[in-house]
Amino acid sequence: MSAADSFPLGAATTLAELARDPHPRLAQLREREPVSWLPELDGWLVTRRDLALSVMRDAATFTVDDPRFSTAQVVGPSMLSLDGDEHTRHREPFNQPFRPREVRDGFASFIERETERLITELGPTGAVDLRRAFAGPLAVAVVTEALGLVGTDADTVLAWYDAIVRSVSDITAGHEAAPDGAAAYARLRAAVEATVADRGTSSLLVSAAGRLAVPEVASNAAVLMFGGIETTEGMITNALLHLLHHPDQLALVRADFDLLDGAIEESLRLEPGAAVVDRYATCDTVLGSATIRKGDLVTVSLTGANRDPAVFPDPDRFDVRRENARLQLAFAHGPHYCLAAHLARLETRIALQRLFERLPALRLDPEHPTAPYGLVFRKPLTLRVLWDSPA
Ligand code: HEM
């Protein structure tokens, strides 16, 4: 029997529908083929939360360390593309600055300043695309601050990031990578070398350089940049969209900003900024009722797991008071759990609270309806909003 016979829903699933509106199909898959073979993906898709956890916990069977991993082809091996002892060796030197207390002490006032500046710059027009004018620039500024590269500003970091993303996307699409990604990475590496050599700087890269070779620090710096920009822009934009789409829930939050944390978790649950994570089977194995072969791609749908009704009753509902929203898996799970989850949460929390405080009657622009889009990184292409009086 062919895979298409064993997994008819998977065979009928297209990547285009998963990019557009994945939720109805993911619900069917989760119920009937929770580990399904998708010919268009050329891999397995895991949609049930318990099975998703099993995959992400078991790096010996389901590894990230595979030559097909496109980011590593551009920036070299890093914590994101290694497992086992090598993963620990690459990740450990970066752990401390991303602990909750260090994040608060090290970043809160920077994020507050940057948020205030961006809101002030929104200007008096009362209409803007918050993704491009607010969420994106804030995400770039915070990553630039976190890296602390000497002589490098946010515009430079953004230009490198764009070039590296283009190369990674080319490779993912099966094309030869455009050369500007390699050139941007070379400049990032040179900036890392200059930073590490500068005794006057307190960048987290300097302390990492005590334990990793400089090219290894550069690879991980690229991953911090890569991991921190697109996803955080999405996290902030999606949370704004969810709240603005649900005025009743926004009213609860405006009345009690303590509910904002729940709103952010709930938004991460419904639309995780990174919708999937990829793993590769290191041996023949069985997952659920699927027989997986060594070398097979196993894609975990965080989006699918996050709406598993076994854990989240009425899973499609946006409920800022949902008690277990923090069980969402937007930051993955296991050894590759997002290094900077605390930072991303703090950033989103400050950004949203200040926006809602400073922009009265902030609302979606009815002339520009929008919805999250994307196969891997999901967010609205634009988030056009209106407000009544200038900031
Ligand atoms: C300042 C912002 C961020 C930075 C610097 C950052 C950085 C990182 C790094 C370095 C890793 C690799 C950890 C490892 O492999 O051991 C990682 C993993 C991950 N991050 Fe983040 N991240 C940020 C924000 C986010 C956001 C907002 C999301 C989603 C909403 C996210 C989702 C993930 C996921 C799903 C993984 C796991 C990847 C995998 O298992 O293959 N990150 N992040």
Notes on the protein architecture:
The protein is α+β, with helices and mostly antiparallel strands. The chain has a single domain (3-386), classed as Cytochrome p450 (Orthogonal Bundle), CATH 1.10.630.10. The chain has helices spanning 3-6, 8-12, 15-20, 23-32, 49-57, 70-75, 84-95, 100-121, 130-147, 154-172, 179-197, 204-209, 214-245, 247-255, 260-270, 302-305, 341-358; strands at 35-38, 43-46, 62-63, 127-129, 276-281, 285-287, 290-292, 297-301, 363-364, 372-373, 379-380, 384-386. It has a five-stranded mixed β-sheet with strand order 1-2-8-5-3, with helices on both faces. Strands 4-12-9 form a three-stranded antiparallel β-sheet. The longest helix is centred in the middle third of the chain and has 32 residues, at 214-245. The protein is globular. The chain starts with a helix and ends in a 5-residue tail after the last strand. The relative contact order is 0.17. The mean pLDDT is 94. Bound molecules: protoporphyrin IX containing FE.
User: What sort of overall outline do the alpha carbons produce when their principal axes are compared?
Assistant: globular
Provide the gyration radius in Å.
21 Å
- CATH class equals Mainly Alpha
Heteromolecules bound? protoporphyrin IX containing FE
Number of domains: 1
Low-confidence residue ranges: none
In whole angstroms, the N-to-C terminal distance is: 63 Å
Q: What's the name of the CATH homologous superfamily? A: Cytochrome P450
Task: Note the total helix count.
Answer: 17
Family: Belongs to the cytochrome P450 family.
GO molecular function: heme binding; iron ion binding; monooxygenase activity; oxidoreductase activity, acting on paired donors, with incorporation or reduction of molecular oxygen
Cofactor: heme
InterPro entries: Cyt_P450, Cyt_P450_E_grp-I, Cyt_P450_sf
